[in-house]
Amino acid sequence: MRVLVIGSGAREHALVLALSHDPAVTALACAPGNAGIAALAETPGVDVGDAAAVAELATSWRADLVVVGPEIPLVAGAADAIRAAGVPCFGPSRAAARIEGSKAFAKDVMTAAGVPTAHSEVVDNPARLDAALSRFGAPYVVKDDGLAAGKGVVVTSDLDAARAHAMGLLDDGHPVLLESFLDGPEASLFCLVDGGTVVPLLPAQDFKRVGDGDSGPNTGGMGAYAPLPWAPGDLVDDVVRRVVQPTVDELARRGTPFTGLLYAGLALTSRGPQVIEFNCRFGDPETQAVLALLRTPIAGLLLATATGRLIEHPPLEWAEGAAVTVVVAAEGYPGRPRTGDVIAGSEADGVLHAGTRRREDGAVVSAGGRVLSVVGVGDDLEAAREDVYRRIANVHLTGSHHRTDIALRAVRGEITVPSPQEA
Ligand code: AMP
Ligand code: GLY
To answer: Which segment of the chain is annotated as a signal peptide (predicted)?
Structure first.
């Protein structure tokens, strides 16, 4: 099978690595890829936001399967164009990708499907903002109603900060979504979806704030681990039954079936799991941890998803133990990252590349905000944490920073799901 992956981050590096281990894969490409991916796959250039160009590459490279990593090509209609060219595609249509591309659309689907989520209101007129904020009360949750790579959200008890963020969005012509605050730990559940059938992967947790102890601004994600030792045993079944399957069924009912990976971002509250957001693709960095534990060959699994044959696929096999990934970010991230610095140790096992490129002299240099995702595995979460931080100690990038507390509270047993009585 000739498999083409679209994207250039550590999520795509993790997908390419898993595909490279699958004997069914005879040729592998990742466009545009990065310096780490280039060691495993061809890396043709492509503008990922240009759906026609992505489909043209799928055809000219003679792909048997295209796996689209990021949301940008999906929201731009890349999967529609690839399928129209006759090539199976792992990734939703533009219409189904709106589950991520528009938070208002996602809320509408959830309401129709009876899926538990925060109460919300769209504000598009500054004159209505103050009254809306006072209806919600603190803590305020203020979101950009569109793609913002996790950076468009402000959660604050400070009314002036909430108002300032909302006014900034409105001034830029972006409608604002206000939400009620959800308490409880967060979890990410990835599900393979072939239009109707849902196959969940291991649950994971990601760390969105830049600094230890969840300090500082939101980022695209600074680390993740899987599975969740603190989660109730029936969490995955419960979320599939109450959240994912009803959403998939509602999208199919609307004539826009979802194919690919549906990512449920959840808060595990005293009233049960509630949806914070849906994404229409694998999450980054959770994928780097989840795929490190998947033993089932991935090419056939993704092809079965893309072609509506998930129901025929045997149950997934997972390694025992746990995986932890830690993102190494460039100086300045999530603001303006410093780039062009030489990275030492970037070719070691367990080091996945995100913002990297190979310079003409052969050196691997930083080329983005999130530069590497280092992955560790172990018999349990504590061992996986030790493994990942041991690997990170061998990576050097001037000015870089990473969190030192990924999965730490879980190892210490400090994460609990609020019980209904505490509500
Ligand atoms: P989003 O871009 O919607 O995933 O939001 C980014 C982050 O903001 C989430 O991972 C949560 O930590 C936080 N957040 C978003 N919505 C809420 C909410 N309704 N209540 C509490 N925290 C939230
Ligand atoms: N891990 C967050 C995201 O992929 O959006």
So the answer is: none
